[in-house]
From TrEMBL:
One Pfam family named in its UniProt record: LRR_RPS2
Keyword annotations from UniProtKB, A to Z: ATP-binding, Nucleotide-binding, Plant defense
InterPro entries registered for this protein in UniProt: Apaf_helical (IPR042197), At4g27190-like_LRR (IPR057135), LRR_dom_sf (IPR032675), NB-ARC (IPR002182), P-loop_NTPase (IPR027417), Plant_NBS-LRR (IPR050905)
Residue ranges annotated for the NB-ARC domain, each copy included: 1-141
A molecular function GO annotation: ADP binding
Entry keyword ATP-binding: yes
Domain of life, source organism: Eukaryota
Annotated Disease resistance protein At4g27190-like leucine-rich repeats domain residues: 582-709, 740-859
Protein name: Uncharacterized protein
Gene3D superfamilies per the UniProt record, alphabetical: Helical domain of apoptotic protease-activating factors, P-loop containing nucleotide triphosphate hydrolases, Ribonuclease Inhibitor
Any one Gene Ontology BP term: defense response
Assigned protein family: Belongs to the disease resistance NB-LRR family.
Length: 870
């Protein structure tokens, strides 16, 4: 049965398995009704960091098979299998081939799993009335408990047939609605659906249609129906390309603003349970049952013709084609196109082929009857040239030619109104100069065009309205701009002629040709570049004697004192790089010793003054993140996340020319994450003061040498010759914690808080606490509930208990009225735990507000019972 919760269940199992370190890696792929073998292979390969460029499935399978066999502990999840899937064809080892590779499969039909050789099979039934009622109440809110609504709400929940997907969507749709709307919805749910789908019940169909009808605004409904035509694993960028072409965001002038609007709408659909989370922030998915219902609605009410994964199908009749607003032929096996389709109202046309290796023949007059077409997407196709009738598409705003083998594309230059042009992962050798005529183009996507080497000179600089340019894994032979010399390829200096450019993804082999400034760049991600040592122009190192000022021709002004040792190692960004509008910077897996150019005087750091988000991970050579002199320029920084940097010793380096005790202020920083930093000792190695007025969320894990809190800096051992304590403190506790809403710490840091004599009000804002211990840590839960008296969510990982969580009976009576009334309690690997509390214990005041209790990987002899009065 579809919508029963299989996908949700296996994703949660996968998450818990990784949390418990049962596997080194979990790989997830949705198989769907008709498996796309290459897509499944690609999803698994990307998770493994394996690049599959082969077109032949068997060769891809062999490479994937060998790569998976090298993994010692890996879980492969294949979700939503409709028919027998040959694992060897995909390249997945199983059984005796590789015992380290475990498989978790889901299917609607048990016989499918049996045919594939699955031994341990579990049936998931519809929710029972009590379970369904709890889920419905959680999604609909407490209003369902009021006397006026209660009986109707119970009937509505029952009408959903115990299916989680129906319960969730209906409850979300009716949340906060009046009694009249509830009663009307109940009548609609009880009206039998006239549409039948394999594996979709009438209750489910009616529930999803009801949720759709309750969506607010035409934009939201259009985005939902458009997403249903896009298959599994929807990339937000693709949906954005279509949305812009269809003019859904009228009145929004900037693509950046339109993207924000799209993200807001996608988030609203997620909240309505009509969309699901994807593997990343840039993806989302739609349950196949929801998709079936959405396509049915689109076909019945929006004049949409859709075919998915069908080998044999017929075009609609002439009258139907004339009414069509959208046509979607996904994974199509038919390579023959009709002579001409008379579709005067068609605005959206999507056609993709199952097999991209066979060339197709598009008749010359194919586009003659589609003059209103706004979005055209040909995916996985092979053709040497376009039909001449394409230049009749005067209203075309979005053209996507992804994963295709393309020949002559010069005719695209005649599509003067084109705003979005995509060649994602296509086999293309060069971009001709004719594309420079697209003076309205706002987005160009050349990502993963591995064979693209040549872009006609001055083509890029001609696209003066370009706002977003994607060229990741695109190996252009960039040339340097020189006076009175003719170029045969593009130059990076052409980017300086794009005044509206806000997003740039680019691959450059030689950093010496990078222009000095990317004035409008807002987001930059540099990752998996082990050979890259700098993102900068080459700068001469001056032979400076003490107290000598270096000339501007040699370098940026720099004052060197004889008492200071100059760090001359190459930074990732030197003083030539200016990104004044940069807001988000992510750096990962780059072998550099430092990120920014060392300078006593903060002359360069205003070039990064708008930075709000910095993520650094797996940069193992870094010793520090910031220099002391640049902190004053980071007033906009809101999010700082540092992970898996093995040699990192301090966050701020002590490289000041004066003897003044520094004062560090992070006025906007709300979130700080420090994880798996084994050598991190301190914020700053010398005497200092710091302020963090906006900090709300702190996550510190596996930073064993870092002491998080102390009452004040006077607790340090200042007898050290250098004035630097053996174990420096991250910060004085009482100066920053009053704003904390979320904390994630080790057991030793929490015990320090519990043992110290701090005012009770310090933790008055704390709502969520996560504590990571080990099997030797005995956890004082009573002290935590008293100290953090407004706590709502408590998560404990890897702790030891004296058989019970709540074992100190006297503590409750002693501290009654002072303990936190937690709503969620989560225990992961609670060592020695046998029960929450004794059966005769009086823990009612603790449990009366508890809504969620989760216990994972407890002892085999643990009891699931709670105290009698709960």
């Amino acid at each position: 049965m579809g919508g029963i919760g299989k996908t949700t269940l296996v994703k949660e199992v996968s998450r818990q398995a990784m949390e418990a370190k049962l596997f080194d890696m979990v790989v997830f792929s949705e198989v769907s009704q008709t498996p796309d073998i290459k897509k499944i292979q690609q999803e698994i390969a990307e998770k493994l960091g394996l690049e599959l460029r082969e077109e032949v499935e068997s060769r891809r399978a062999s490479r994937l098979f060998e790569r998976l066999r090298n993994e010692k502990k890996i879980l492969v999840v294949l979700d939503n299998i409709w028919k027998h899937l040959n694992l060897e064809t995909v390249g997945i080892p199983f059984g005796e081939d590789h015992k380290g590779c475990k498989l978790l499969l889901t299917a609607r039909d048990r016989s499918v799993l049996l045919k594939m050789g699955s031994k341990d099979n579990f049936l998931i039934n519809n929710l029972k009335d009590e379970e369904a009622g709890r889920l419905f109440k959680m999604m609909a809110g407490d209003d369902v408990e009021n006397r006026e609504l209660k009986s109707t709400a119970i009937d509505v929940a029952r009408a959903c047939g115990g299916l989680p997907i129906a319960l969730s969507t209906v409850a979300k749709a009716l949340r906060g609605k009046s009694l009249h709307e509830w009663k009307n919805s109940l009548r609609e749910l009880r009206t039998p659906s006239m549409v039948n789908f394999e594996g979709v019940s009438a209750e489910t169909y009616s529930s999803i249609e009801l949720s759709f009808n309750h969506l607010k605004g035409k934009q939201l409904k259009k985005i939902f129906l458009l997403g249903s035509l896009m298959g599994n694993g929807i990339h937000t960028l693709d949906l954005f390309k279509y949305s812009m072409g269809l003019g859904i965001f009228k009145g929004v002038n900037k693509m950046e603003d339109a993207r924000d609007k799209l993200y807001a709408l996608v988030h609203e659909l997620r909240d309505s349970c009509l969309l699901l989370e994807g593997d990343s922030n840039e993806e989302f998915s739609m349950h196949d049952v929801v998709r079936d219902v959405a396509i049915s609605i689109a076909c019945r009410h929006q004049h949409v013709f859709s075919v998915r994964n069908e080998d044999v199908w017929d075009w609609p009749d002439e009258d139907a084609l004339r009414k069509c607003n959208a046509i979607s032929l996904r994974n199509n096996s038919n390579r023959e196109f009709p002579e001409g389709l008379e579709c005067p109202n068609l605005e959206f046309l999507y056609i993709s082929l199952k097999d991209s290796s066979l060339e197709i023949n598009i008749p010359e007059n194919f586009f003659v009857g589609m003059k209103k077409l706004r979005v055209l997407d040909f995916t996985r196709m092979q053709f040497s040239s376009f039909p001449s009738s394409i230049d009749l598409l005067v209203n075309l705003h979005t053209l996507c030619l992804d994963q295709s083998a393309l020949g002559d594309i010069a005719i695209i230059g005649k599509l003067k109104n084109l705003e979005v042009l995509s060649f994602f992962m296509s086999d293309i050798m060069q971009l001709p100069e004719e594309l420079g005529q697209l003076n309205k183009l706002r987005l160009l996507d050349l990502t993963n065009c591995f064979r693209l080497k040549v872009i006609a000179p001055n083509l890029i600089s001609s696209l003066t309205r370009l706002e977003e340019l994607y060229m990741g894994n695109c190996f252009i032979e960039w040339e340097v701009e020189r006076a009175n010399s003719k170029r045969s390829n593009a130059s990076l200096d052409e980017l300086m002629h794009l005044p509206r450019l806000t997003t740039l993804e680019i691959h450059v082999k030689n950093d010496s040709i990078i222009p000095e400034e990317f004035a409008q760049l807002r987001s930059l991600s540099l990752g998996n570049l082990p050979e890259v040592t700098s993102f900068c122009r080459e700068v001469k190192t001056p032979s400076a004697s003490p107290n000598r000022q270096v000339s501007q021709e040699e370098s940026t002004a720099m004052y060197c004192s004889s008492e200071i040792t100059l760090d001359i190692s190459t930074p990732l960004f030197n003083e030539k790089v200016a990104l004044p509008n940069l807001e988000a910077l992510e750096i990962s897996e780059i072998n550099v010793n430092k990120i920014w150019h060392y300078n006593h005087l903060p002359v360069m750091f205003p070039r990064f003054q708008n930075l709000t988000r910095l993520i650094v991970w797996r940069c193992h050579k870094l010793k520090y993140i910031f220099s002391a002199s640049m902190i004053g320029s980071l007033k906009q920084l809101q999010h700082l996340d540092i992970r898996h940097c093995e040699d990192l010793q301090e966050i701020i380096s002590e490289n000041r020319a004066d003897q003044v005790i520094p004062y560090f202020v992070f006025p906007q920083l709300t979130t700080l994450g420090l994880q798996y930093l084994p050598k991190l000792r301190c914020l700053y190695p010398g005497m200092h003061t710091s302020e963090w007025p906006a900090l709300e969320s702190l996550l510190v894990r596996h930073c064993d040498k870092l002491k998080i809190f102390a009452a004040d800096l006077s607790q340090n051992n200042e007898n050290d010759q250098l004035g630097i304590p053996e174990q420096q403190l991250l910060w004085p506790l009482e100066k920053i914690v009053s704003n904390f809403k979320e904390l994630s710490l080790s057991g030793k840091d929490v015990k320090m808080i519990l043992q110290a004599d701090f005012p009770q009000h310090l933790f008055g804002s704390l709502k969520q606490l996560e504590i990571v211990g080990d099997d030797s840590t005995c956890f004082p839960i009573w002290n935590v509930l008293e100290r953090f008296h407004n706590l709502e969510i408590l998560t404990l990982l890897f702790f030891s208990f004296d058989e019970e969580v709540f074992s100190e009976e006297g503590s409750l009576e002693k501290h009654v009225g002072k303990l936190a009334m937690i709503k969620e309690l989560k225990l992961y690997r609670p060592y020695h735990l046998k029960q929450l509390g004794k059966q005769d214990s009086k823990l009612g005041p603790i449990f009366q507000y508890l809504e969620i209790l989760e216990v994972y990987y407890c002892a085999r002899n643990a009891e699931s019972s709670t105290p009698n009065n709960y």
